DNA sequence: TACGCTGCGGAAATCGATTTCTGACTACAG
DNA sequence: CTGTAGTCAGAAATCGATTTCCGCAGCGTA
C-alpha cells in the first residue's frame, strides 16, 4: 500500500505538507502543492481512512437499527436516511434487530467499539441497546417509538390521530361494530393507535367493547390468528382496524382463506401503506405513514446532533395520511 | 475514553498482557488474567475498534452495492446477506447506486479508503466501480449480473431458463401473440431473459416478431410506457412477459388505467416475485427468484474469498421458480 | 537597526490497539 | 552442575494519518 510517506518522498516534501495539501486546511506554496498532486496521481495514492479515523477519533458511519429491512415500512425509511447520509458524507450500517433486545444490545455495543458517529434506532420493547447508547452519550435519534426515561431526539408519527382518522372514516361509512388488532402492550405505537381507535369510537358515540380488541405481535401470523379469533365471536365485527401493515396482510389472508371479502363481508382499514396498494383488488384503505420522510428527518436530526451535541433534544412529529381506497367502502 | 493503558495501569501489568488476555491468543498467568478482567469490568473498558482495525489492516465491514433498497428484489437479498454477515462477525454498509455508474464508482472508492473487508455488488451498466475494485483486488462478489472481462465470484440466477419457463407456460395456455418487455441492452439479465423468451417461442413453433419486444429501463414508468406502446399496435398482444417486478407493476397499472383486465384481456407473467402477490386480485403469475438465498450465497462466497484470496473464482447459479397464479390462466 | 508579527515547512508527538523482540525464569537432560 | 529448550511478561515498534510545536524567513513599524 502506498502511504502518505511515499507521496512525501516522491514529491520531496514532508508528510505534514502532503496532509495539508490534501485536506486544504492550510495554505501551501502552490509549487509544492502542484508537486504533491502530481505525486498523488502518479502513485495513485488513496488515504487510509482507518488511520484518519483513529487520529480524528471519529468515523463516518451511521448505524440504523430497525427490526427488519424486509418490512416495507423500514425499507423506505432506511432509503430516506441513506439519502441524507450520502449528501452529508456518511455511510449507513444496516442492523436488523428482529425485535430482539439482545440483538439490539449487540449492535449498540458494536456502535460503541467501532466508534460510529451516530445511530438511528427503532427501539425493541425493552430498549436494551438504547440505554447503553444513551449512557455513552452517542448521538442518537429514536424513530417510530418512544422510550420511557430516555432523553433523545425523536421522529414520531401522530399515531393516535392517524388511528382516529382511520376509524372515524369507518364510522362515517356506517360501521359500528369495529374490531381492532393492535400490537404488544409494551410498545408505544401499539398503545397510541389503540388510543386513537378508542377516541374515534367515543367521538362516534360508540361504546368501547374490549372483546373486539386483540393484542398481537405486529407480524403476519399474529394478524392472521387475531382475525380468526375475531371471526369466532358470536357476533363477528362488521369492520376491522389493523394497527400495522403485516398484521393487516395476515388478517386479509385469513379472510381470503375463509372466502370472505372486503368490504362486503367486513370492511378493512390498515395502518401503514403497503407497496402497490392500488393494484390489490379490492384496493386497501390505509393510514399511510410518511416513511421516507421519517428516515430523512431522522438523518437531518442526527446531523444536527453531531454538529452541536449540547443542543436540547427535539421531537419531530409527522402526520399520517388517510388513503381511502376500496376496502372501506360505506355500508350499502 | 479509557484505553488499554488505563486497564494495564489499573491491573499492574503491561498493555501487551491486557491485549493477550482479551484476545486469548496466548497463555497468560491465570492470576494476572483475573486482575485484568477485574480492571476491565471496573473501568468498563471497551476496546477501540478503529485502532485495532488500523493495526490489523482490515475492518469488519462489508459493502453491499445495489441499485435501490426499495426494490423488493434487493430488500430480501440484503437481508440474506446481513444474516450471514452477522453470524460471521461483519457489518453491512448499505449503498444505493440508483443504477448510476458515478455513484457506484463513488461507493467503490469509499470501500477502498475505508478499508472495507469485502463487497457484494450488483453492477450498473458500465460497472465503473467494479473495475476499480477488481483492480485493487478487493474481495468481491458479483450478484445478479455478469460483467465482461471481470473475473470474480458471482451469484447468478438462471435467467434464460426462468424466462423460458414463464413464456412456455403462456404458450401452453394457448397464447401465441406474446409480447416481451425487457431491460436495457447493456444489462446481462435483460438480454438473458429476452433469450429465454425467444427460446420458448422457438420451442412452441412461434415466429419471433421483434415488434412485440420493448427494451425499457427496468423501472415502473418504463414498464408503463412500454405497455402503452404495445397496446397501440395494430394487432395488440394476447399475453405479456415482463422481465422484472417494477416493469410488471408499471404494465399492470397501464392496463388498469385502460380498463383492461388480466388474464381476460391480456395474460401476464412477470419476472421477480412481488410481496403478497397472492393478495393481488387477480393474483400475479411470476417467475420468482430466490432473492434471500441469493444474498445468503453471496455472503458465504465473500466469506470464503476473504479466507482464501487465492482460490479461483466460482460462479453459483440458482434456479428460479414459476409461481402459477391467476393472471396467466389458459385461454378459454 | 531592532523588534514583533505572520506565513509556511518539517520534525515529532499523537491516536489506541497489536505484535515482535528481548530477557528473565523454569524445567529437564546430560 | 551446566547447557538448552520452552514459557511468559514487558518494552518498544508498528499501523498511517493528523496536528502541534518549533524555527526560519520576510515584512512592517518604531
Automatic annotation (TrEMBL), chains A, B:
InterPro entries in UniProt: Cro/C1-type_HTH, HTH_LacI, LacI/GalR-like_sensor, Lambda_DNA-bd_dom_sf, Peripla_BP_I
The entry's keywords: DNA-binding, Repressor, Transcription, Transcription regulation
Taxonomy, superkingdom: Bacteria
A matching Pfam family: LacI
Location of the HTH cro/C1-type domain: 3-36
SUPFAM superfamilies per the UniProt record, alphabetical: lambda repressor-like DNA-binding domains, Periplasmic binding protein-like I
Limits of the HTH lacI-type domain: 2-56
Keyword Oxidoreductase part of the UniProt annotation: no
GO molecular function terms attached to this record: DNA-binding transcription factor activity; transcription cis-regulatory region binding
UniProt keyword Ribosomal protein, yes or no: no
Record-given protein name: LacI family transcriptional regulator
Amino acid at each position: 500500500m502506498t502511504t502518505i510517506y511515499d507521496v512525501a518522498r516522491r514529491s520531496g516534501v514532508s508528510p505534514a505538507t502532503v496532509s495539508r495539501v490534501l485536506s486544504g486546511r492550510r495554505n501551501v506554496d502552490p509549487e509544492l502543492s502542484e508537486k504533491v498532486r502530481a505525486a498523488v496521481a502518479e502513485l495513485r495514492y488513496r488515504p487510509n481512512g482507518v488511520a484518519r479515523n483513529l487520529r480524528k477519533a471519529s468515523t463516518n458511519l451511521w448505524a440504523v437499527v430497525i427490526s427488519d429491512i424486509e418490512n416495507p415500512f423500514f425499507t423506505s425509511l432506511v432509503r430516506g436516511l441513506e439519502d441524507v447520509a450520502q449528501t452529508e458524507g456518511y455511510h449507513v450500517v444496516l442492523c436488523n434487530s428482529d425485535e430482539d433486545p439482545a440483538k439490539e444490545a449487540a449492535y449498540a455495543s458494536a456502535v460503541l467499539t467501532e466508534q460510529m458517529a451516530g445511530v438511528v434506532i427503532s427501539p425493541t420493547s425493552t430498549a436494551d441497546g438504547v440505554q447503553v447508547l444513551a449512557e455513552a452519550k452517542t448521538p442518537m435519534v429514536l424513530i417510530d417509538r418512544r422510550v420511557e426515561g430516555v432523553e433523545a431526539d425523536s421522529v414520531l408519527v401522530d399515531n393516535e390521530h392517524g388511528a382516529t382518522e382511520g376509524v372515524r372514516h369507518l364510522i362515517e361509512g356506517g360501521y359500528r361494530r369495529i374490531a381492532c388488532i393492535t400490537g404488544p402492550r409494551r410498545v408505544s405505537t401499539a398503545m397510541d393507535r389503540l388510543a386513537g381507535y378508542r377516541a374515534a369510537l367515543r367521538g362516534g358515540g360508540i361504546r368501547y367493547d374490549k372483546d373486539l380488541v386483540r393484542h398481537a405481535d405486529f407480524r403476519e401470523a399474529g394478524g392472521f390468528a387475531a382475525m380468526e379469533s375475531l371471526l369466532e365471536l358470536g357476533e363477528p365485527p362488521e369492520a376491522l382496524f389493523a394497527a400495522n401493515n403485516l398484521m393487516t396482510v395476515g388478517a386479509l389472508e385469513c379472510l381470503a382463506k375463509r372466502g370472505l371479502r372486503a368490504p362486503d363481508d367486513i370492511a378493512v382499514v390498515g395502518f401503514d401503506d403497503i407497496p402497490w396498494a392500488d393494484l390489490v383488488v379490492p384496493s386497501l384503505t390505509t393510514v399511510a405513514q410518511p416513511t421516507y420522510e421519517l428516515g430523512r428527518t431522522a438523518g437531518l436530526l442526527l446531523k444536527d446532533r453531531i454538529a452541536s451535541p449540547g443542543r436540547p433534544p427535539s421531537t419531530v412529529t409527522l402526520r399520517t395520511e388517510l388513503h381511502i381506497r376500496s376496502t372501506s367502502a360505506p355500508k350499502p
